[in-house]
Amino acid sequence: MGTRVGPAGAKAPQTARSGQSCDGAVRSGVPSSMATDNEVTGHPERTEEFDAFGPWVYQVRTADEVPRLFRPFAGDPTSATMVIKIPRRIARRDANPRMDLYDHLLCLRGDTLTLLSRAPGDADGVRRRAVTAEQVVAIEDSVDLLDGRLGLRIADERPLVVSYNGASHDVVGQFVAALRRQVRGGAPAVDEAAAAAPALDALWQDVALVSEYRELVREEPAMSVRAAHGRRVVEPIHASTLRRLLHRWWPMWLQAAVVCSDGVELLVLHRRSWWVRGSRPVHSVARTTMRLSAGLSVEVVPTGYHGVSELRVGHDAARFAVPTGSPAEKALLDLLG
Question: What's the structural domain count of the chain?
């Protein structure tokens, strides 16, 4: 039978061949849920996931809100304590509805924490890691302007670290609070030193840490400050004349810290980096939390600077740089000893 011809002599549209879309673009055979960034042609249909996409971390409450890449592995979010999804660090103008838009899904279900991560080179495109609350030795949540970072130190395993946009620090903070409740195991606070709480006068240069402490005690009234030290310039040990001159021109600062506890947990407020060179402003704020009953070893290690020691807890689960012999060092040793 001959080819049908339209009014102007043009051929009628042909039926799409197998493996070919209606606009003639050849498909790779990969399901849309596993589409790669370069596969999109034409104008793909919008989705709720794409419409909501941005730099924000979202709490996942329903199965429809689970990113499609993670759905086969995530389970029912309604049965979980809390689930959050962390987006890819790409501009919205570079995103499209067929892309996998989220890098991580963090799920806390009972005493098990599961991290699902986008891994294009792995089987199914997903990397899975699960740990129990009992294995979590330390939790460090920090922000430096919009650079957020959640780090979990796991007993006898490599750390679990996830980066996120600092604009969503409140959502991540809720997740950390839920995880801390599991790590504590329901142990009640023991308010044993609130009456002896020292003042924070030494932190006059670190208003951000003072504000963080005030926010902490509003959230957790049982938490009290046990000791604190302010930032200070430190001098290197056994330094040459040239190195001493360099440090005077470009000094090394030991950053401030506030040691807190409620008798069940140790919570240290500090900067993301304990050591900062020069006079540039420091904007980061970090919270490191550890369970006091974990029975961790504590090693006091001298640093390369006069009057500064480093406390290494639980085989490098956490490190705290403090002035040697200071109330902060004594408080840490008393709490962790």
Answer: 2
